[in-house]
Design goal:
The protein is of the alpha/beta class. The chain folds into 2 domains: about 130 residues, Alpha-Beta Complex (Aldehyde Oxidoreductase, domain 3), CATH 3.90.1170.20; about 110 residues, Alpha-Beta Barrel (TIM Barrel), CATH 3.20.20.70. Helices cover about 40% and strands about 20% of the residues. It contains 11 helices and 12 strands. The strands form 3 sheets. Strands 6-11-10-9-8-7 form a 6-stranded parallel β-sheet. It has a 4-stranded antiparallel β-sheet with strand order 3-5-1-12, with helices on one face. α8 links the parallel β8 and β9.
């Protein structure tokens, strides 16, 4: 379906969402609307947004009415002004009414993530740093939500526990410390996978570097400590170690964090605290 979203996954997510909402049937629509009635619907942004999930919304209606006809009036990643129509769809009135809420839910959620992501990307514009997301996503919707982050102009961290090594505080608590944990993982992991370690103070920064970390995550450090940590890592035995900052990164502070010289800033808020945006749908009868 384009935009690097796997169609099989999208259809599975949509089927689950429709099943949850429709159950054994849309009672109201089945009582009021004739099977052969045709309608036209317009989906409109009611506030300024970065659009995301347009093709997902269309797929909702295609699932309910394979013969529905669409006119896409905007694209994912586009900055949409309030009052702008995003999608025009014509098809069975029953399908439009039954799919309306699910289609809007996807659009409102994903556009909300994309809109917030764009704000974060703009906040560090011009600086050599990347804003990345986290695994703090809605269960079952991670691929979609991480897609919306990219659409907004930020980047993805690892997708799951399977595609990256990240030694976190609770791993360290169950071993003999940062240095030991890093050494163990470094010795056992494939050479093709980078090793990232979460640290909370300067002593742990040194242990992680000495243990062979490829990426060091500075977790919940204040700006002065973060700046000192960056200096230690940059001067460590001429080894290039990537530096990530994490923990409570707000729009008001993210640029100051970027100015410390870190390479990455991970922001859980991109997905877990983004607000749904206001997008509506109006449906009209089509005369035969």
């Amino acid at each position: 379906m384009g935009n690097d979203l796997p169609l099989t996954y999208i259809r599975s997510v949509i089927e689950n969402a429709l099943s949850e909402d429709i159950g054994p049937g849309d009672i109201t629509t089945s009582l009021l609307i004739a099977e052969d009635q045709i309608a036209e619907g317009f989906i409109t942004a009611e506030e300024d947004v970065i659009a995301a999930g347009i093709l997902v919304a269309e797929e909702v209606f295609k699932t309910l009415d394979p013969d529905a006809v669409f006119e896409t009036l905007a694209r994912d990643g586009e900055s949409i002004s309030a009052g702008t129509k995003i999608i025009r769809v014509q098809g069975k009135a029953k399908a439009l009414l039954t799919g309306e809420r699910v289609a809007l839910n996807f659009l409102q959620r994903l556009s909300g993530i994309a809109t917030l992501s764009r704000r974060y990307a703009e906040a560090v514009k011009g600086l050599p740093v990347r804003i990345v997301d986290t695994r703090k996503t809605t269960p079952g919707l991670r691929i979609l939500e991480k897609y919306a982050v990219r659409i907004g102009g930020c980047r993805n961290h690892r997708f799951g526990l399977f595609d990256g090594i990240l030694i976190k505080e609770n791993h360290i608590a169950l071993t003999s410390g940062v240095g030991v944990a890093t050494n163990i993982v470094r010795d056992k992991s494939p050479h093709t996978i980078k090793v990232e370690v979460e640290v909370k103070n300067l002593e742990e920064v040194r242990e992680a570097a000495e243990g062979g970390a490829d990426i060091i995550m500075l977790d919940n450090m204040d700006i002065p400590m973060m700046r000192e940590a960056v200096g230690i890592i940059r001067n460590y035995k001429d080894k290039e170690i990537m530096i990530e900052a994490s923990g409570g990164m707000g729009l008001d502070s993210v640029r100051n964090v970027a100015l410390t010289g870190v390479d990455l800033i991970s922001v859980g808020a991109l997905t877990h605290s983004s607000s749904w945006v206001n997008i509506s749908m109006d449906i009209f009868p089509v005369k035969s």
